[in-house]
Design a protein that fits this description.
Four Helix Bundle (Hemerythrin (Met), subunit A); mainly alpha; about 75% helix; about 0% strand
Length: about 270
């Protein structure tokens, strides 16, 4: 039987989907009223998303990070919050087109995960380093997802002048990609690698054990290290940066889903 948190999750999912459809229509015909409807749906979905996380926290009596389902909900909440911040700062509803599709894809992935609530944390998770690790990693991966969404939009955008003032330019989208990666990289470095290693030492007695999840995190970190280095040198920009942001999301998705099939010390999360 679905609990209140899962019901809120499904309500938020369908409203995100409705927002995506409205944003897509808005991008095509540029009628402000449709954009407003899309944004209202998005904020309603975000409210349900937030309420679902809060309900799960209240029911379980601990922060909702202890399972892959909870982690995915929190990470997508970060993505949705990022769009809210971007909307407040730039006042461009059209940017919902680049956020909502990836939100929907990741939430579909979440829907296939076990949704049971753990009311008692296992000993390995009873550490403040675990919360630091998971929170910063989720913030970083949320930023990388925003970068991928902007990258997809960059590649799909038509290079013509008739898109209108509400339609983001490729320069603006490139800025979103670059800033998202620059925000996500240090958070991932500190959260996924350093805090994760300290937590692993406290939980399992070793800083690094080449667990599949640890190996995937290292691959992600090396990939974005190279992307950021080349971007800061002015080499990988424009279309190349957009493509790489999408590849980064694919690497993250493979690492995330691989955790379901390869087992290891992180198999429970």
């Amino acid at each position: 039987m679905n609990t209140i948190d899962v019901n809120m999750f499904w309500a938020g999912f369908w409203m995100y989907l409705g927002a995506f459809l409205c944003y897509s229509i808005f991008a095509s015909i540029k009628k402000r009223g449709i954009g407003v409807v899309a944004t209202v749906l998005f904020f309603a979905a975000f409210a349900c998303h937030t309420a679902g996380l809060a309900a799960r926290w209240w029911i379980s009596t601990h922060a909702p990070f202890s399972t892959m389902f909870e982690y995915t909900l929190f990470m997508t909440w970060i993505v949705a919050l990022s769009y809210v911040v971007i909307l407040v700062r730039y006042h461009r509803m059209i940017l919902g087109v680049l956020v909502t599709p990836i939100l929907i894809v990741v939430l579909v992935m979440a829907s296939m995960l076990p949704k049971e609530i753990s009311r008692q944390l296992m000993p390995a998770l009873q550490s403040y380093w675990f919360y630091i690790h998971v929170t910063l990693a989720a913030l970083a991966e949320g930023a990388f997802i925003v970068a991928a969404g902007a990258g997809i939009f960059f590649l799909l955008k038509r290079s013509r002048e008739g898109d209108g003032p509400s339609f983001p330019s490729r320069d603006f989208l490139e800025e979103i990609i670059s800033r998202s990666i620059r925000i996500g990289y240090p958070l991932f470095t500190i959260g996924a690698l350093f805090a994760g290693s300290i937590w692993a030492h406290h939980a399992w007695g070793a800083y690094w054990s080449w667990d599949p999840k640890e190996t995937g995190s290292l691959v992600i970190w090396l990939f974005y290290s190279l992307v950021l280095h080349q971007n800061l040198r002015g080499r990988w920009r424009g279309k190349t940066l957009a493509v790489l942001s999408i590849i980064g999301f694919v690497i993250f998705a493979v690492s995330f889903l691989g955790n379901l099939f390869l087992g290891g010390l992180h198999a429970y999360i």
